[in-house]
Design goal:
Shape: elongated
Strand order of the largest sheet: 2-1-5-3-4
Radius of gyration: 22 Å
Bound molecules: zinc ion
Order of helices and strands: EEHEEEEHEHEHEHEHHEEH
Strand content: 15-25%
Number of helices: 8
Mean pLDDT: 87
CATH topology of the domain at 90-181: Rossmann fold
Structural class: alpha/beta
Number of strands: 12
Low-confidence stretches: none
Helix content: 25-40%
CATH architecture of the domain at 90-181: 3-Layer(aba) Sandwich
Length: about 250
């Protein structure tokens, strides 16, 4: 039996049981094990990790662990300069595009409401989600850690919160999307692009109450659904404004 000393930093602790959070702990193993497999066996997906130090030297995921190694595991650093160390996470994808798992349909709608390209179908299986992510260079948002442990996955994020509004804020903060929101640019139902529509063209398609209170309308170029700034939208907009001004860091 061999032994290593492990310490996980920052939000990586979200994946660990209470007694292993934010402390150095001993882990026992036998045989030949890569550091990636050891970390994932403890429940932390590789997509969450940016840096691994073994005895103070940065290593890759394929590093084979030795008896008595001291291993520190870090998520992405926001401010610390680690440019000369070996980063394990690929650079963030340039334009934020997402594919979300079957449990996150409401999050997908909220992200679309804020203008983000977000693919979701409640019939997708994990393989389809991974395939779409790779082919279309989309980041996977998921509540299912097993997807992120798949070797093929390059960009993915495990959503911590359970409530859709909190999830939305979590994702906006995590991917720094504050300055990129573009409300009323995307259809909540089908993710296609919205265009402005004149009130007189759709007057017979909207409820009477809406006719009286709203003058700005949008139409989906694909499914033709009509949109206006209703109460649902206003609630979300208030939250987003608070994030943008720094008033709200998280919920
Ligand atoms: Zn549509």
């Amino acid at each position: 039996m061999k032994k290593v000393h492990l310490r996980f930093y920052e939000e990586l602790n979200d994946f660990l049981p209470e007694e292993k959070k934010k402390v150095r702990f001993e882990h026992f193993f036998t045989g030949r094990v890569s550091v990636k497999d050891m970390i994932e066996s403890l429940g932390v997906p590789h997509t969450e990790i940016d840096l691994i130090l073994v005895n103070e030297t940065s290593v890759g995921f394929d590093y084979i662990v030795n008896d008595n190694d001291i291993i520190s595991i870090y998520p992405e650093f926001e401010s610390l300069d680690i440019s000369n160390l070996q980063h394990l996470r690929s650079k963030p994808l340039r334009s934020p595009k997402f594919v979300v798992d079957v449990h996150l349909g409401k999050l997908a709608r909220y992200l679309r409401m804020l203008g983000f390209d977000c693919i979701y179908k409640n019939a997708y299986n994990n393989f389809e989600i991974i395939d779409i992510s790779l082919k279309e260079k989309r980041t996977i948002l998921t509540k299912d850690r097993s997807i992120l442990k798949n070797k093929m996955v390059t960009h993915g994020y495990w959503v911590r919160n359970d409530k859709p509004e909190r999830q939305t804020i979590e994702v906006i903060n995590r991917f720094d999307l504050k300055k990129l929101t573009k409300e009323f640019s995307r259809c909540l139902d089908c993710n296609n692009v919205l265009i402005e529509e004149k009130k007189e063209n759709i007057i017979d398609k909207i409820p009477p109450k809406v006719k009286n209170y709203h003058n700005e309308f949008y139409r989906c170029i694909s499914c033709k659904k009509i949109y206006w700034r209703g109460s649902h939208y206003e609630r979300m907009q208030k939250l987003v404004d608070k994030i943008k001004t720094g008033e709200l860091k998280s919920l």
